[in-house]
Design goal:
With 191 residues, the chain is of the alpha+beta class. The chain is 20% helix and 26% strand. The protein has 5 helices and 9 strands, in the order H-E-E-E-H-E-E-E-H-E-E-E-H-H. The longest helix has 11 residues. The relative contact order is 0.18.
Length: 191
């Protein structure tokens, strides 16, 4: 039964070390194994053969300046993910941009976030300085990059994202509904 499996996992869980040592409370609940070279997370990637996706191990990402390292708690499958998985003939892309997550770590220069906070994500990373960004339309930025296309997305246990694209979720909103914030925002913006 499921409870017995959880008890067994807790008894046999290895001690966590490395970069996240001492932060067991904010570690992902489902952790993949330690490979000889690094901690590895599970991710779904494109195979480069149209509509073929596969699960694989990837090294844990590290947050850069202005970024958050987050543990994905729920992720939607957008129609664009389906179209991209069919259209892309490029292997190794981690799709997924509609998600809720838990903050694990803030990168250099990021303030105001602490481990354990739940967030919904705005998946577009823009330059922040062009006329479109200044006008509040970062999706029109010529340098815009989207999670799940130009950079690794949320079809993974962990991902990094721009800290200014993270929005706190209220405790009353579950992770599954938190993953729907982005598609609802798109629909609202269209109206």
């Amino acid at each position: 039964d499921l409870e017995a499996a959880h008890r067994f996992a807790e008894r046999t869980r290895p001690q966590m070390g490395g970069r996240h040592a001492g932060t067991v409370a904010t570690r992902p609940a489902v952790r993949t194994r330690r490979l000889w070279y690094a901690w590895a997370m599970r991710a779904v990637i494109t195979q480069g053969s149209h509509t073929t996706l596969a699960t694989t191990d990837l090294p844990d990402p590290t947050p850069g300046p202005g970024e958050l390292l987050v543990r994905v708690t729920a992720c939607g499958v957008c129609g664009s993910d389906l179209h991209l998985s069919d259209a892309l003939d490029v292997p190794g892309i981690v799709l997924g941009h509609e998600f809720a997550a838990e903050v694990l770590e803030a990168g250099p220069g990021v303030e105001g976030w602490s481990g354990g906070e739940r967030i919904a994500a705005f998946p577009i990373v823009s330059c922040g300085t062009c006329a479109w960004c200044a006008a509040g339309s970062p999706s029109k930025c010529a340098q815009a990059n989207q999670l799940g296309l130009g950079r690794p997305g949320a079809f993974a246990q962990l991902t990094t994202m721009a800290a200014d694209g993270a929005y706190r979720l209220p405790a009353s909103l579950g992770d599954d509904l938190g993953a729907l914030v982005e598609p609802l925002a798109v629909a609202h913006h269209a109206l």
